[in-house]
Amino acid sequence: xxxxxxxxxxxxxxxxxxxxxxxxxxxxxxxxxxxxxxxxxxxxxxxxxxxxxxxxxxxxxxxxxxxxxxxxxxxxxxxxxxxxxxxxxxxxxxxxxxxxxxxxxxxxxxxxxxxxxxxxxxxxxxxxxxxxxxxx
Length: 136
Ligand SMILES: [Cu+2]
Known about the structure:
Layout: H1 2-22, E1 40-45, E2 54-57, E3 62-67, E4 72-81, E5 84-87, E6 99-102, E7 107-110, E8 117-123, E9 130-135
C-alpha cells in the first residue's frame, strides 16, 4: 500500500514537471509565435536585425531578446527613421537604456510592459533594426 502511494506521488510530480516545461517561455523550436502563460516572449536577433519586426505581448509581459549571431546589439527605446536614430521614451514604456546583448547565445529581458499600447525598440548599432512592441 505504501509503495502504491509512492508511485502515485511520483507520477503526480512528473505531471507537474511536464506541465511546467510545456508551458515554458516560448523558447521552443517552433517559430515562437505564441505567448506563454508566464507572459514571456522570445525575440531572436540575427547579425543586423530582429528576426521579426513586431511582437504582440500581454499586459505585464516581458520580452527576452536572444542574440543568435556573434554581433553585439545595444537596445534602446526609440526607432530608426529614414536612416537616423530617434531615441524616444514613450509614455508607459519601461526604461530601456542601451541594453547590451553581447553576442551569440546571450539574452536580456526587456520589461515588464505594464501599459497597453504600441512601443518602439531599436538597436543603436544597426541602422533600420527596429522592433515594434504591441502590448494588449
Ligand atoms: Cu543590432
